[in-house]
UniProtKB/TrEMBL annotation:
Gene3D superfamilies: Glutaredoxin (3.40.30.10). This is Thioredoxin domain-containing protein. It comes from Flavobacterium aquariorum. GO terms for cellular component: cell envelope. GO terms for biological process: cytochrome complex assembly. Its main location: other. Keywords: Cytochrome c-type biogenesis, Disulfide bond, Redox-active center. It comes from the Bacteria. Residues 1-121 form the Thioredoxin domain.
Amino acid sequence: MSLKESLGKVTIVDFWASWCGPCRKENPNVVAIYAELHAKGLNIIGVSLDEDPIKWKEAIAKDKLTWTQVSNLKGWEDPIAKQYKVESIPATFILDKSGNVVAQDLRGDELKAKIIELLGK
């Protein structure tokens, strides 16, 4: 999986984990945004900092996360998290259609508003 596949789409890179309460609490909001805006060009890539593949997959199913999910199952040693300098989760990076990070760590209505703004460009 490469981020280059997302070029041309507004993309949220969402760092989370099954054991992260705030992440799981935000997931229904992200699911709703994805359901509403995916057909208009929104892409999401979930990057899990889990180490237990069973708990990770159970959380994906329970929270109904239908977009691409990746994990190296290395927790905080995840190379993608290190590349993005993630020090706490949930952490979200919003990329424009060119792949540039244009916002980060937005939640709820702020996240939705930014996505709608970027999809309109």
